[in-house]
Hints:
The structure holds two protein chains of two kinds. Chain A is mostly helical. Chain A contains two helices and no strands. Chain B is built from eight helices and four strands.
Amino acid sequence: MEMFEINLTSVVQLMSFLLLLYILKKFLYDKYFEITDARKEKIEGEIKKAESLRKEAEEYKEQAKIELQKIRERTDEIIKKAKEEAEKIIIDAQIKAEDEADKILKSAREQIKRERAEMLSEVEQKAGELAIVLAMKILKGALDEKAKKEYLIKVLKESEK
Amino acid sequence: MNKKAKVGLIIFIVVYFTIGIINAFYFVPKDTSEVTQGLASRWIVQISDKSAWYTRLNPLTIAMSWAIIIGLIIFAVKVGKNFKIIPDRKQSITESVFDFMYEIVESVIDDPRFVKPTFTIATTLFIYIAVSNILGGAVPGLNVSIANGSVKFTLFSDTFFAPTADLNTNLTYALMVFVISHAFAIKAKGVKGWLKSWFEPNPIMFPMNVIGELAKPISHSLRLFGNVGGGAILTFMLSYLVKYLLLPIVFWGFFGIFVGLIQALVFAMLAVAYISAQIS
C-alpha cells in the first residue's frame, strides 16, 4: 500500500503550492486584473469618444444637408431669375425690334411721301415752266397751229407721267 | 513550424529512438514479473531513524513538482513583466486561459467579493495540475522504478512522473480547497451562519452533512489520483508490452493530454463548485 501512503511530502506540496500561488498572484493575476481593468476603461473611453464623434459627425451631416438645401434653393431661384430676365430681355428686344421696324417703315414711308411730294412739286414747277414757255411760244406765234397742238399734247403727256 | 523547432524535433526523435533501442535491448528486464513488481511502489526516503509519517518523503514527487513550479514561476515572471494593454503572443495565451477560468468562476460564484480569490486558487490549481498531468502523461522522460528494493533510473522508457499521481499532492490540495471553502463560508455568513449551515435543512441532517462534507475532499483527491495514477500505470504497461520501440503516442496523447487536461479542469471546477456551495 505504498501508493496510498500519506507522509511529509504533503506538507512540502502544500508549502510549494502556496508559494506558487503567491508568486503567480503577484506576477500574473494582479497584472491580469490591472490590465483587464485598464483595457476595459480604455475601451469604454474609446467607445464614448467614438459615440460623441459620431454625434458630432451627424450634426455636421445635418448642417451640411440644410446648407445644401439652401444652396439648391438659391440656385433654383437664380436660375428662375435668369430665365425670367432672359425672357424679359427677349421680349424687350422683340418690342424694340418691332418699334424699330415700325420706325424705319414709318420713316421710309414719310420719305417716300416727301420724295413724292418733292417730285410732284418739281413736276408742277416744270409744268409751270413749260406752260410759261408754251405760252411764250404761243405768244410769239412762231409755231403753227398743228405744231402747237402736238407740242402741247406731248408736254401734257410728259407731265402726266 | 520554424527551422529551429524542426531541428529540435529531429534531434529529439533521433535521441528518443536511440535511447529507446538501448532501453529495449539492454535495460528492459526480460521477465514481466520484474516490471510489474515495482509498479505500485513508490520511491520513499526516510530522513531519520524513526519511522513515522513526518520522517518519510517522496523525493520524486517533490522534485517533479518543484521542477514544474520553477518552470511556471519563470514563465509567470517573464510574461508578467511585459503585460501590456495590447498583448503579445504569450500574453494572449495566458489571458485566454485566465478569461476562460474567470468567466466560469464569475458565473458560479454569486458573491463578487469571492470571485477574485476563488479565481486565483482555481486557476493556479488548473495550471499546476494541467502542466503536471501533461508532463506525466505525454512527455517521455526520466523514469524511476523500484525493483527489489533498489532504485533504477531509465531515460525515455516512460513519461515523467506526475506529482498528481501521488496521493500526497492530491489530498493536500483537496483538503486545502476544503479548508478554504469553509473559511470563505465563515467570512461570507459569519460564524453563526456557518454553524447553522451544518444543521440545515433539519438538525437530524447533521451527521449527513458531516459525512457529505468529509466525502468531498476524499472524492476530489481520489478522482484525480485514480485518473492520473491509473493512466500512468496503463501507459507504462502498454509501453512495456510494445518494448518502448513503437511510439506509444496514442496512449500518451489520451492519458496525458486528453484525460490530463480534463481532470485538471474537473479538479479546478470542483474546487470552485465546493467554494460556491459553501458561500451561498
